[in-house]
């Protein structure tokens, strides 16, 4: 499946240290609060990773059940939730298509930086795969519930998809075929130094992206796709 999967399986702590530097202006939680009914929400999260999205919404939601296929990522998510006193954030190990839930049990379902991997990992079948995952999220919230997808529009770029990006087909599919509304959010990273910025960006995004780093602040654009069921 490539380097990303190895990172998720073997380097969860390093990944969590990277994303801790993301969105230093806290634009994403404001966008989530603006576009989703989070106050008192019951939330299902697919591809929860180390819990970065869970922790963003923790102050408002009543409960959250987060799932990820990588046990190492879930271990970090549980530890971080425990340290923060977030007993209402619960985690388990399951791939997107293996999450068990009662239909309509949640009011909000979401995923963050998870479904988009299908474009590279399943080039010939990613549209069917993403559709199945989205339909499962829809069933989890039922009629009137909200579904949200969070995916990248590019890192170390000055505009969304500047220079081209593998997720451009995903973006078009989610908006045109699955009828989500896209909100563009600026989620710049801020590191202690340019050297740290280059090293951490190289670790996850690779040499090509690291070569575009010019300062300790690394620009990034993120899409928040939202749909009411």
Compute the separation of the termini in Å. 32 Å
CATH architecture: 3-Layer(aba) Sandwich
Structural class: alpha/beta
Please give the CATH class.
Alpha Beta
Write the layout of secondary structure elements.
Layout: H1 3-10, H2 12-19, H3 27-35, E1 42-46, H4 52-57, E2 63-68, H5 71-84, E3 89-93, E4 108-112, H6 118-121, H7 126-141, E5 146-155, H8 168-176, E6 181-186, E7 189-190, H9 194-205, H10 207-210, E8 217-218, E9 220-228
Parallel strand pairs: 1-2, 1-4, 2-3, 4-5
Antiparallel strand pairs: 5-9, 6-9, 7-8
Any overview of this molecule?
The chain is an alpha/beta fold. The chain has one domain: Rossmann fold (3-Layer(aba) Sandwich), CATH 3.40.50.150. Helices cover 39% and strands 22% of the residues. Strand 2, helix 5 and strand 3 form a beta-alpha-beta unit.
Quick structural summary:
This protein has a single domain, classed as Rossmann fold, CATH 3.40.50.150. Helix content is 39%, strand content 22%.
Notable traits:
10 helices, Rossmann fold, 39% helix, alpha/beta, single chain, 229 residues
């Amino acid at each position: 499946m490539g380097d990303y999967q190895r990172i998720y399986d073997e380097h969860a702590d390093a990944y969590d240290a990277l994303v801790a530097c993301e969105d230093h202006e806290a634009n994403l939680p404001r966008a989530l609060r603006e576009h989703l009914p989070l106050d008192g929400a019951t939330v299902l999260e697919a591809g929860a990773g180390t819990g970065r999205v869970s922790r963003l919404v923790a102050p408002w939601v009543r409960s959250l059940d987060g799932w990820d296929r990588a046990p190492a990522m879930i271990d970090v998510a549980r530890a971080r939730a425990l340290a923060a006193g977030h007993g209402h954030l619960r985690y388990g190990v399951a791939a997107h298509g293996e999450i068990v839930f009662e239909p309509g049990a949640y009011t909000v379902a979401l995923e963050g930086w998870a479904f988009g991997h299908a474009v590279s990992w399943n080039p010939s079948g990613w549209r069917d795969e993403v559709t199945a995952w989205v339909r499962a999220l829809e069933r989890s919230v039922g009629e009137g519930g909200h579904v949200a997808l969070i995916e990248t529009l590019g890192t170390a770029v000055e505009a969304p998809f500047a220079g081209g990006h593998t997720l451009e087909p995903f973006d078009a599919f989610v908006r045109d075929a699955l009828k989500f509304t896209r909100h563009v959010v600026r989620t710049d990273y801020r590191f202690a130094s340019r050297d740290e910025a280059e090293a951490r960006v190289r670790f996850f995004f690779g040499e090509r992206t690291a070569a575009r780093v010019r300062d300790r602040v690394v620009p990034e654009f993120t899409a928040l796709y939202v749909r009411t069921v």
